[in-house]
Amino acid sequence: MAHSWLKVLSFLIAAGASLAGQNSPPELGGAFRNPEKAGWIFVHLEGTPQAIGYQHGYLLTPEIEDAKRAIELSVTHDVKHDWSTLRDVAERYFWPKVPEEYQQEIEGIAQGLKSHGSKLDTLDLVAMNAYMEFSYYYGESEKKQARGVAASVGDHCSAFVATGSYTKDGRIVIGHNNWSDYLSGSRWKMIFDIVPARGHHLIMDGVPGLIHSADDFGINDAGIMITETTIGNFHGFNRNGVPEFARARKAMQYSESIDDFAHLMEQGNNGGYANTWLVGDRKTNEIARLELGLKNVTLERTSDGYYVGSNFPINPKLIAEETDFPINDPNTPNLVRKRRWDQLMAENKGKIDVQTGKKFETDHYDVITKEIDPNERTICGHIDRSPRGMKGWQDPYGPAGAVEAKVADSAMAEKMSFVAGAGKPCGVEFHAREFLAKHKEFAWQAPALEDLKANPWIVVSAAARP
């Protein structure tokens, strides 16, 4: 019966039918979801933490169950522990440190799921939200020898923020593409428009079931524009700290300035999913780069310049104490991407706008070969393509790379809006069945590996009804 109801629910949603009628639960309030468009699903949530959570679980039950299957397959393979063990870690180390507001929201998601017969519970959702922090937990707690856990954590994303003389109108432009394994990355298809009872209205991309963006691209109505890239080869974790997913959501919801953002991210820092954050304040036209290690934190800011991210560490002390990054190898892919970023910024100084940002985030120029050749060294990453013996290839070949991209300028941010390209907006598609037929070593991904299509960029805006 529950499975049949999920099919009916999906049909109603796809048809754009309203779920806020007489028979809908009162917690649904003014919440709604739009039919999928260009690979994105837009959902509007509003109210108390419990209400926002219930609406999330109620409106996205099939997508949350699908995301859980993909995340479980991905993370359990990476850390070599089963889902039951990860639930135990989540209950012991993550859940108690989650602020009450977000505990209520997560419990609300579980209640919304339960209303449609889902068996997922609160601990499943906590483990899903923290899935990128488990490698940090195991790497530190078991001295990087936890049943095969790698010494360094996988890298994600290429991002920029620019202002002043670098942009066309002198105001802020920000952009980001999300690198991920395709198992979880193909589920990064949500646009969350959230109006909480406390804090600021926010709009962000995300994954069904997660209360944070997870690749951390978002805008709030106080004028704060946020993104990040992971610090490459980082290690360190504080089991008594606040999970990164809770701090990231809180900072996006409550920040009114760059100082607010830095404070909220540093407060209770557990070292999980360590990032270099790129932030803009459209009210002051100032941008900042917050390199947030566990021991070493560096905040830089400017009103005329740019910051870029491609998983390279910056502070020499952080590099020495908290990473195994090959900083002396200029051909390591993350540093090759940095050189391309600096090249693009110099070539486009004074011309950067949303359209330019879209070109940046889908760039396939390899600085080493001086060719258009999408691979791990290009800003738009394609690890699924054969390395062909390229020097400097660091990560294992496999189904991973850029899975979506977003760009906004200050004018769009004022309207709580940005442009978004789902799947492969660069145009180079990934076909799961074809890939698996050629690469039997990835057969373990077959139950959940999906195609990534070349979707067009679209404008997404807060409170956009069908």
- Looking at the structure, the CATH topology of the largest domain is Penicillin V Acylase, Chain A
Largest sheet properties: 9 strands, mixed
Q: How many structural domains does the protein architecture include?
A: 2
| Oligomer classification | single chain
Can you give the helix content as a percent range?
25-40%
- What structural class do helix, strand and pairing data support? alpha+beta
User: What is the average per-residue confidence, as pLDDT, rounded to a whole number?
Assistant: 91
**Number of helices, where a helix is a run of at least 4 consecutive DSSP H or I residues:** 15
Strand arrangement across the biggest beta sheet: 1-2-5-6-7-8-9-10-11
Could you explain how this protein is built, in words?
By secondary structure, this protein is α+β, with helices and mostly antiparallel strands. The protein has 2 domains: 2-16 and 47-141, Penicillin Amidohydrolase, domain 1, CATH 1.10.439; 158-461, Penicillin V Acylase, Chain A (4-Layer Sandwich). 33% of the residues lie in helices and 20% in strands. The chain contains 15 helices and 17 strands. The chain has helices spanning 2-14, 49-59, 61-79, 83-94, 100-114, 122-129, 134-141, 182-185, 244-254, 258-266, 316-322, 333-347, 354-361, 410-414, 432-438, and strands at residues 32-33, 41-47, 158-163, 173-181, 190-196, 202-206, 218-220, 224-230, 275-281, 286-292, 297-302, 305-309, 365-366, 371-372, 400-409, 417-422, 458-461. The chain has a 9-stranded mixed beta sheet, with helices on one face. A 6-stranded antiparallel beta sheet has the order 12-3-4-15-16-17. Helix 9 (244-254) packs antiparallel against helix 10 (258-266). The relative contact order is 0.13. Residues 1-22, 143-153 and 388-394 have low confidence and may be disordered.
